[in-house]
Design a protein that fits this description.
Length: about 375
C-alpha cells in the first residue's frame, strides 16, 4: 500500500510538473511574440507657436532654426488636438493613440490600461519661455471632468536652463480670501501676493492642481503633467495673442479651482547622485526620476506595470532593450516611450555624460502573482 501511494504521488508530481512546464513555455512564447512588435518609440517634432515663446527649442532638438516663436515641444502626447506621431520602426508614421489602441496592456501596462480606459495618462513637454506666461491655475480631476469631460492637471517642472535673474511664480505668499483674490484680479495687483522663486538648472517645482503658477521669461524646462489641455488664465498682462486679439481669461473658473493654502517651501528637494535614479516625486498621477549617467545604467522597471517616458535632457545616449536586443539612439532634446512589456533596458551614454528624466505610473505590486510575472519575464530573456 505504501509503495502504491508513493507511486501515485510521484505520478501526480510528474503530471503537475509537465503541465506547469507546458504553461510556462506557452507564456514565454506568447510574451516573446508580443515583444517582437514592441520597441521604444521615437516621435516626429510636435512644436507649438505661442506669444511668449522663443528660439531655443529648435537648436536644443537639433532642428533647423525658425523665425517662429516656438514655446512648446509636445514630446509624448495622446491629447486628441495634438497627438504624437511615431518616427521609428514598424509603426513609423502612425499616431501614438492609434498604436496604443492595438495593444494597450502591453504598451501602457495592465494596471494603467484598466485605470485609464486604455488612454495614455501623461503628457510631457519641453517649454521655452522667452517672455512671461500668463498667471494661471489648473483644475483637479473632479472639476475638469464635471466642466470639460477631461482629466485635471497636476504637473512638475524640471529647470534645464535659466538665464541669470530668471524666476517663476508658484503658490501664494500668504493665504488670500476669495474676496481678496477677486479684488486683486480686478485691480491688477495679483502678482504682489504670489511667491516668487529665482531658479537655476536642476531646480524642480511640483504644481498640484489648484496651485497658482507662471513660468517667467528666460527659462527652458521639462514638464511632466496629466494628459490634459485645460488651463485657466487669471492674468495675461493685457497683451494680444498670436491672432492679435486678447487671450481669453477664466477668472471665475480659476476662483473655484484655486487652493489658497500656503506652503513653507514650494521647491521640490531631492538628491542628485551620479549613476543612480534619483527620486524626484511619487504622486498619485506620476512618478519622476532623474539620472546623471557617466557609465551604462540598467533600468528594470517591469515591477511598475507601466510605460516609461524618458526625456533626454543632456547628452545623447542609446537605449538597449534586454529582452529583444532592440536599440534606439535617443538624442539630447528628444524623448521616447518604452512600452511596459519591455521596460527592462540599458541606458548607454555616448558623450561622456547623459541626463535622463523618467516619468511613469507607479503601480508596484508585491503580491505573489506579480512576483511570478516578474520571474517569468526575467527567465524568458
Amino acid at each position: 500500500m505504501c509503495f502504491s501511494a508513493r507511486k501515485t504521488s510521484n505520478m501526480l508530481f510528474l503530471i503537475f510538473t509537465f503541465h506547469f512546464s507546458f504553461f510556462f513555455i506557452s507564456l514565454q512564447s506568447i510574451r516573446k511574440k508580443c515583444m517582437e512588435h514592441l520597441y521604444p518609440f521615437l516621435f516626429e517634432p510636435n512644436l507649438h507657436a505661442v506669444v511668449w515663446g522663443g528660439h531655443r527649442l529648435c537648436p536644443y532638438k537639433g532642428l533647423p532654426a525658425s523665425d517662429t516663436l516656438v514655446g512648446e515641444s509636445w514630446e509624448v502626447s495622446a491629447v486628441p488636438s495634438s497627438t504624437s506621431v511615431i518616427s521609428n520602426g514598424e509603426y513609423a508614421g502612425l499616431d501614438l493613440a492609434s498604436v496604443i489602441s492595438r495593444s494597450p496592456e502591453a504598451i501602457l501596462g495592465d494596471t494603467v490600461a484598466r485605470a485609464y480606459s486604455s488612454q495614455l495618462p501623461l503628457l510631457v513637454k519641453f517649454i521655452d519661455a522667452e517672455k512671461d506666461l500668463s498667471i494661471q491655475v489648473h483644475p483637479n480631476d473632479e472639476m475638469a471632468q464635471r466642466l470639460h469631460g477631461k482629466f485635471g492637471k497636476s504637473e512638475i517642472w524640471y529647470i534645464i536652463d535659466a538665464k541669470p535673474g530668471s524666476f517663476l511664480y508658484a503658490g501664494f505668499k500668504h493665504e488670500l480670501s476669495p474676496g481678496e483674490y477677486k479684488q486683486r484680479v480686478a485691480d491688477g495687483t495679483l502678482t504682489d501676493v504670489l511667491a516668487r522663486h529665482e531658479v537655476k538648472s536642476g531646480d524642480v517645482f511640483y504644481l498640484p492642481a489648484g496651485r497658482v503658477h507662471a513660468i517667467c521669461g528666460g527659462i527652458l524646462l521639462a514638464e511632466v503633467q496629466q494628459s490634459s489641455d485645460v488651463t485657466y488664465r487669471i492674468f495675461d498682462y493685457n497683451r494680444p495673442g498670436m491672432d492679435g486679439k486678447p487671450r481669453e481669461l477664466h477668472t471665475e473658473w480659476a476662483a473655484e479651482a484655486l487652493d489658497f493654502h500656503v506652503e513653507d517651501d514650494y521647491r521640490t528637494q531631492y538628491s542628485n547622485l551620479n549613476n543612480r535614479a534619483n527620486r524626484i516625486i511619487d504622486s498619485p498621477y506620476f512618478s519622476v526620476r532623474v539620472t546623471e549617467l557617466t557609465a551604462p545604467f540598467h533600468r528594470n522597471l517591469i515591477k511598475y506595470d507601466s510605460f516609461i517616458i524618458s526625456m533626454c535632457l543632456k547628452g545623447d545616449c542609446k537605449l538597449r532593450v534586454r529582452a529583444t536586443g532592440e536599440e534606439i539612439l535617443l538624442r539630447e532634446g528628444h524623448s521616447t516611450l518604452v512600452p511596459a512589456a519591455i521596460a527592462d533596458y540599458d541606458v548607454i551614454p555616448l558623450q561622456g555624460k547623459t541626463r535622463i528624466l523618467d516619468a511613469y505610473i507607479n503601480n508596484k505590486d508585491n503580491s505573489l502573482g506579480s512576483k511570478i510575472t516578474r520571474f517569468l519575464h526575467i527567465t524568458s530573456k
